[in-house]
Amino acid sequence: MKRQDTAALLLGAATVLGFAPFGLFPLPLLTLALLFRMWRKAPTPRTAAWLGFVWGLGFFLAGVSWVYVSLHDVGGMIAPLAAFATLLFCSYLALFPALAGYLFRRLADNTPRPLRDAFLIAGLWTLAEWLRGTLFTGFPWLALGYSQSPPSPLAGYAPLLGSYGLAFIVALLAALLGFGWRRFWPALLVVGVIAFGFVLRGIGWTEPVGAPLRVVLLQGNVPQSLKWDPKRLSLSIETYLRLARENPAQLTVLPETAIPLLFDEVPREVLRELAVGGETLLGVAVRTMQGGYANGAVALQPGGSSQGYAKSHLVPFGEFVPPGFAWFFDLVRIPMSNFTSGPPRQPPLALAGQKIMPNICYEDLFGEEVIRALPEATLLVNLSNTAWFGDSLAQPQHLQIAQLRALETGRPMLRATNTGMTAAIAPDGTVAAVLAPFTRDALRVEVRGYRGITPYGRRGNGPALLLALLACLATLRGRRKSL
Q: Which spans are transmembrane here (predicted)?
């Protein structure tokens, strides 16, 4: 491997330190600035694409190595095959920064122009990330904008432009640093963008509504290896009943598939006991009208009535079988791996005086899907089971993703998880309270619902994508004029 390739690989791996749990949010500006300089100096578009691929390989192998844990440690796939599958997956993800590098070097002329090149590269990077988050149901994990959760001053842009808009800003600033840090106008623009982020952080886009609500979020910490063992069913039931009894509240929230049964198979006395002290939101699989089953959340109320939510954005290979891949499930042990998706638009649940919109595990990666419940929803609740990923970076990374969803919507986000990280996130994206991962405990918090709507909540990803497109088109138009 050439020295430049090694540098790109290490820069990609180092960029992961900008994300949770490390939180070195200025670091991606530096690592991307160096990558973009490599692209600018690359002799051909193919060389730039290769550098982008190598950077992406380092980035994703370091950042989503927990895929190996889910396949081998938990799923039971043999180690060599799990390692190869992880490498293949990360190689696929690395194609997107490679695409951005190729197009940049292909479209930029040979005369360096810091401002124009910076806007082109920001637009291309943003569109490549959006493509990664869309193709084949999407995988926007470690999207660049997530690195700028609070306390980053750039977090102030999230209610305006969402995570893809943040990606555009980070890529723009990185390119300005890489191409024109010695020049006045690029340096001034960097300072101005960061300063305006501080101003935006002080704006409250939404306002509280209703009385404070006492909530308890339960974290059972039931090992994945035991959870689906029929002989250990009592372990899950007894764990959550004890936590609920010891921590009464107006609203009790249990994580995704907290009780590993279909809802109609759960003993009625268990449901009654869970709902005795107040109202309960239970993560549990539910039967569908078509005869299948959905990954769901059921709201239990003391009178016996219930409302439900069915997860609509399913995880390929984890919750449904992509066409032609039935053989994959002969290699791993994944219980309940063929869920039916729920409808894309579902009404919030009326619970404890609030309108609560659940999202289940992976669904909170997709900001434009979460905002479908706005402005009706006053409170967001995520139910997750990340025991599949062991003691890895997945838990703090997922919490950071939830911080962006709170910022984008101007709503509190509550997270009830099996193994971590169970937390309460304020509308400004700060983590108000969190349980230590891999502990059996209950998080007691007091929250208020919020009403109103942020600019992102109203328009979604459209403005960020339009900004990216305009940045690319303006650059191309300027290039044609100079020819």
A: 6-36, 48-69, 81-105, 117-142, 154-177, 184-205
User: How many other C-beta atoms lie within 10 A of the C-beta of residue 436?
Assistant: 11
> How many CB atoms lie under 10 A from the CB of residue 347?
12
Which residue among the candidates 90, 129, 279, 361 is catalytic per the annotation? 361
Counting Cα atoms < 13 Å in the Cβ hemisphere of 330 gives 4
User: Letter for the amino acid at 371?
Assistant: I
CA–CA separation, 348 and 420 (whole Å) = 25
**Which of 206, 210, 284, 271 shows the shortest CA–CA distance to 244?**
271
- E strands along 200-289, which residues? 207-219, 251-253, 279-287
List Cα–Cα distances, 9 to 55, 129, 248, in angstroms.
Answer: 5, 19, 50
Which residue matches tokens 């539910």? Answer: 286
pLDDT, average across residues 54-79 = 92
Query: CA triplet 242, 246, 249: central angle to 5 degrees?
Result: 115
**Amino acid of residue 4:** Q
Q: Which of 51-55, 180-184, 197-201 has the weakest average pLDDT?
A: 180-184
481 catalytically annotated: no
Q: Which residues contact 83 (CB under 8 A, 6 or more apart)?
A: 68, 72
Q: Is 472 a catalytic residue?
A: no
Q: How far is CA 450 from the centre of its chain?
A: 22
Residue of 311, 355, 408, 472 with catalytic role: 311
Residue 256 falls in the annotated catalytic set:
yes
136-145 tens-digit pLDDT: 999 999 999 9
User: Using N-to-C axis directions, what is the helix angle for 114-132 and 27-41, rounded to 10°?
Assistant: 110
CB-CB contact of 348 with 357 (8 Å): yes
CA–CA dist 380, 378 (Å, integer): 7
Q: How far apart are CA 275 and CA 114, in angstroms?
A: 61
Residue type, 215: V
What domains, with CATH codes, occur in the chain? Answer: 3-203+461-482 (no CATH), 208-453 (3.60.110.10)
Amino acid at 177: L
| pLDDT one-digit tens code per residue, 89-99 | 999 999 999 99
- Closest listed residue to residue 300, CA positions, set 273, 277, 276, 281: 281
CB within 8 Å of 315: residues ≥ 6 apart: 137, 361, 362
Select from 246, 188, 186, 193 the least CA-distant residue to 220: 246
